[in-house]
Amino acid sequence: MIIIIVMNSLVYKKYKRVISIMISGIVHKFVFIAVILVISGCAHHFKVAEEKIRTVYMVEDSANSPVSQFAPVFLIHNHQKTYNRIGRPSAIIDDNGKEKVYIDENNPVMYYLVRNFVTEKDTYTNYIYRVHFPRVPFSLVPYHLSAGKNVGLITVVTVDSKNNPLLITTVHTCGCYLAIVPTSYLSADTFPDNWNGKKLKVYGERLPPGLDYLNITMPRVVVHLRPGVHRVMDLEIIEDQNIMLNNGFNKISTPLAHMDDLMKIPVNGSFTSFYYTEGLMNGFVKGSVKVWESLFLSLVSLDLFVGTDKVYGNPEIYGNKFYTSLKPWNRTASEMWDFKRFLEFWGWKL
């Protein structure tokens, strides 16, 4: 043992400078990543310019079904920029005979999925809504860490067996920027132990700590989106979505489509999937690799495709977990398909 210690000491003395440089390089890299994350978070404090006419994407409620009744309204700023518009995942075959998947910003759609989960307290239903945008543009000021194409956002409305909305969950389709906001229907004993009732801090954004449904007969959740990055910058409950139409909002009617339709996008008389269906990228959105996130966060997360948008589906089928924590050891516990386990991981006691 003494001999080994002495040898290790001699080796360290001999290569002390090399080891110091290596350690210093690793430290500097992690400091650089931290700075990038801070810059990315602070960038979202830029004030959004006031607009005379704001645009909202909303579902027509003529079907009078729970899926349409719980569908969120998306409030868009700077709608004249095509990358801020909700569109429809589409595909073409280019001049080189290669398939190209893109978002048609002139043809919006809101995809939905309904899933149930059971706890000891109740049976719950998730109404899951997914929308996509053409891209997050590359930008240095403000810095867009999530720059890339075919990006998306998921909103989950969790209701109890009495159809009361309990939680509104928002997350980007890469699993990033998660926010779980309780409503006035949710009992305080189901909140996380560290809940302080203050505004939620989500990487630079400030979201309300709760949403009030009391004394509202036709409630509708409105999701305010920051232009460029499509981050959720606010949430509110309104009495009736049609009220917005009487206050100078530009309405864009958005049809509902089942989330399975993303597996069968028409192209040249046939169909293709919005996602890769085999290989290393199975379950990821085609054309959605996030260069900056992969560069700065792949080492931290141990995921080369961190930040890349993905399918919201059974990981046993796609081999691709919709995880919401960057820590590799939390990948399964923070995965959203098993919503009961997901809520328990984040401290909720439904």
Structure overview:
- With 350 residues, the chain is an alpha+beta fold.
- The chain is built from 7 helices and 17 strands.
- The protein has a 6-stranded mixed sheet.
- It is globular.
- The N and C termini lie far apart (55 Å).
Structural shape: globular
| Structural class by helix and strand composition | alpha+beta
**Helix share, percent:** 10-25%
Side by side, the strands of the main sheet go: 9-8-7-6-5-15
Count of beta strands:
17
Q: Look at the structure and give the mean pLDDT.
A: 84
Query: Main β-sheet: number of strands, strand sense, barrel status?
Result: 6 strands, mixed
Strand content: 25-35%
Low-confidence stretches: 1-44
For the termini, the CA-CA separation is 55 Å
Give me the strand/helix succession: HHEHEEEEEEEEEEEEHEEEEHHH
Number of helices: 7
**Alpha carbon gyration radius:** 23 Å
Question: Keyphrases for this structure?
Answer:
single chain; 350 residues; 6-stranded mixed β-sheet
Protein topology:
Blueprint: H1 2-14, H2 16-42, E1 55-58, H3 66-69, E2 73-76, E3 88-93, E4 99-104, E5 110-118, E6 123-136, E7 148-159, E8 165-172, E9 179-182, E10 200-202, E11 205-207, E12 220-225, E13 232-238, H4 241-245, E14 250-253, E15 256-258, E16 265-267, E17 270-272, H5 291-301, H6 315-318, H7 339-345
Parallel strand pairs: 1-14, 2-12, 5-15
Antiparallel strand pairs: 1-2, 3-4, 5-6, 6-7, 7-8, 8-9, 10-11, 12-13, 16-17
